[in-house]
Amino acid sequence: MSLSPARLERFARHIVLPEVGGAGQVRLAQSHVAVIGLGGIGSPALQYLAAAGIGQLSLVDHDVVDVSNLQRQTIFTTRDIGHGKAVSARRWLANFDDSLSVAVSDAQITADNAARLLAGADVVVDGTDNFATRLAVSDVCVAAGIPLLSAAVGRFQGQVGAFAGHLPDQACYRCYVGDAFDAEDCDTCAEDGMLGAMAGWAGSFAALQAVRVLLQGVSALGDPQWSRMHILDGLAPGLRTIRIAKDPACKACAAL
């Protein structure tokens, strides 16, 4: 695959980076990323993934845009209120870069349909807002051998973790949280609040890590940082990283 003169110009600031280069930009153009949840994290993550030239994007979100979303979900405008997030996100992408291939689903992702919705993805970025969905996505990623970037945010704190539980020495998201959260139980930003810029930080960091994963073996951007959770503190501000061990009893990845 080669890039057209127009694409070379568009991504020139990437290509001049030794850590990306022409080969890296071609890899991004050939990549398929699934973004699950197009809210506070998925919205800015999608913008930077599209800006990076990810060639194929799958968008999954069953929710509709609400006026309260606009404080942090930067992909939407007042004209999108009442419309489905997935369709509204596709509209934004069409205006931003009509060369990208985009598939959308307004179905709620579950353990029953996750394999179909994530099929063919090179990386999954999960920005959903409850543990049951996150665990369902993680389990399918392990079974299908798909790397997972799992990101969360609330109040003044964000978390972005890279998981490759399909690899024998790496943890999955279930190793991190355990089995107690399969029920749909999670604090929400409606109850606790969220600084809008924190969602932007977590979402853009997730996009950065997704690019890092996609360029593994092609460029010198760095290792994908499997089994590491980066914790973003907006009050300090600061960032710290913890290592997550593979759970030898994990029902999703222990046998791998």
**Portion of residues within helices:** 25-40%
Largest sheet: 8 strands, mixed
Question: How many beta-strand elements?
Answer: 8
Principal-axes geometry comes out as globular
Give the assembly state of these chains: single chain
> Secondary-structure element order, as H and E?
HHHEHEHEHEHEEHHHEE
Write down the Rg: 17 Å
Instruction: Report the total helices.
Output: 10
The parts where pLDDT drops under 50 for at least 5 residues are none
What is the mean predicted local confidence, pLDDT?
A: 94
Which structural category do the helix and sheet elements fall into?
A: alpha/beta
As laid out across the biggest beta sheet, the strand order is 3-2-1-4-5-6-7-8
Q: How big a fraction of the residues is strand? A: 15-25%
Kindly summarize this structure in a few lines.
With 256 residues, this protein is of the alpha/beta class. It contains 10 helices and 8 strands. The longest helix is centred in the last third of the chain and has 19 residues, at 196-214.
